[in-house]
Specification:
This protein is an alpha/beta fold. A seven-stranded mixed sheet has the order 4-10-9-8-7-5-6, with helices on both faces. Strand 11 and strand 12 form a beta hairpin. The protein is globular, with a radius of gyration of 22 Å. Bound molecules: 4'-deoxy-4'-aminopyridoxal-5'-phosphate (PMP). The site of 4'-deoxy-4'-aminopyridoxal-5'-phosphate has 14 residues, from helix 4.
């Protein structure tokens, strides 16, 4: 039984008003709201446990370390990794991708080698590779898509060359909602001996993740996209790869011994965790994962599928609407334009009705170029949204449409 009333009650912010109207929060792809359990865990840890981890013999430090390492185990369980050594804490998806872009290109690539991304990537999965390309003369190849927003798998197969060293692709597009066939893409890449990084920023809160079943070599996500605090993220990497890669940043924690002559590095996962980690944030993330696990990721996915079907029908019925991203089985994110109303005008007027949507290029400018537009309005749903909120969105769009 999916208790939507209870779920909404768990998120205090959802009962606030904006401009005297009930908040309809539909910007979940940008960031999700936090349940009380997460906020209270963070507050309680600051009030009663706080101490730096891994270094202290004293009671609080040991307790903080236990919480931090238990959080790593919670993440491992949530994404079904083989070992907690494969869970590296970072600042978020962006840092996780930069870490791989920097260390993988350093250790495993030379000038003229190729990295493959898709046309629907977030800038976070484009620019780190471009920086590496500029440093090392690496070539970026782009997997195209059709007009529905489905990746062209034939073209994908053909893009492989003997110089292809890595594929880095979004699990779910933050703009189109397309759920890419990453398991199949990994199998194709592996048949050519090429590892795959999956950007799970937009799948982690919607789809049960099993990194071993996906056989992904790297899987990255941000805590704030899955009801956890900001500033924390995860890099999952198969141990065989993480072992091969050099450290990303230098500092405390990531070393074994340091001398001016020679420094040796810590074991996994600490080799990649320089400096004091956000140990309070990791605890918050673990509480968020506990929260969604208690509801059930399958149950959340089923509920959101229903919401997606309902919203697709309601939005498609609006005269003059153009929806971008109509891939079968898409996730609950809707990018659209109505008539020739500018996306910024639509977003601003919806905001006055209490409806929070995002407007613009959604950090996917190459995708906008592919679609031949400057930007869209994006409504993105989460586990706490309702059909009534879909109705409010549809009514709001209609109202704006009539004003124009
Ligand atoms: N990749 C995708 C697909 C995203 O949607 C986002 C966030 N919008 C990111 C990467 C970057 O995530 P973060 O800003 O949390 O690092």
């Amino acid at each position: 039984m999916y208790d939507i009333a209870q779920i909404r009650a768990d998120f205090p912010i959802l009962s606030r008003q904006v401009y005297g109207k009930p908040l309809v929060y539909l910007d979940n792809s940008a960031t999700t709201q936090k349940p009380r359990a997460v906020v209270e865990a963070i507050t309680n840890e600051y009030y009663s446990v706080n101490a730096n981890v891994h270094r202290g013999v004293h009671f609080l430090s040991q307790q903080a370390t236990e919480l931090h390492e238990a959080s790593r185990e919670t993440v491992r369980r949530f994404i079904h990794a083989r070992s907690a050594n494969e869970i590296v804490f970072t600042r978020g998806t962006t840092e996780s991708i930069n870490l791989i872009a920097s260390t993988f290109t350093e250790a495993c690539m030379k000038e003229g080698d190729e990295v493959m991304v898709s046309v629907m990537e977030h800038h976070s999965n484009i620019v780190p590779w471009q920086l590496a390309a500029a440093r090392k003369g690496i070539v970026l190849k782009v997997i195209p898509m059709d007009d529905q927003g489905v990746l062209d798998m034939e073209a994908y197969r053909k893009l492989f060359t003997p110089r292809t060293m890595l594929v880095s692709v979004a699990h779910v597009s933050n703009t189109l909602g397309t759920v890419n066939p990453v398991r199949e893409m990994v199998a194709i890449a592996h048949s050519r001996g090429v590892p795959v990084l999956v950007d799970g920023a937009q799948s982690i809160s919607h789809i049960p993740i099993d990194v071993q079943a996906l056989d992904a070599d790297f899987f990255v996500f941000s805590s704030h996209k899955v009801y956890g605090p900001t500033g924390v993220g995860v890099l999952y990497g198969k141990e065989k790869w993480l072992d091969r890669l050099p450290p990303y940043q230098g500092g405390g924690e990531m070393i074994q011994t340091v001398s001016f002559e020679r420094t040796t590095f810590n074991e996994l996962p600490f080799k990649f965790e320089a400096g004091t980690p956000d140990y309070i944030g990791t605890h918050g993330l673990a509480k968020a994962l506990d929260y969604v696990s208690a509801i059930g990721m399958d149950e959340i996915a089923a509920y959101e599928r229903e919401l997606t079907t309902y919203a697709t029908g309601r939005l498609n019925a609006i005269p003059g609407i153009r929806l971008f991203g109509e891939a079968p089985g898409k996730s609950c994110v809707f990018s659209f334009l109505v008539g020739n109303i500018h996306h910024l005008d639509m977003g601003t007027l919806l905001d006055r009705l209490g409806i929070a949507v995002r407007t613009g290029h959604h950090c996917a400018q190459p995708l906008m170029q592919r679609l031949g537009i400057e930007g869209t309005v994006r409504a993105s749903f989460a586990l706490y949204n309702t059909k009534e909120e879909v109705d409010a969105l549809a009514a709001g769009i209609e109202r704006v449409r009539r004003m124009f």
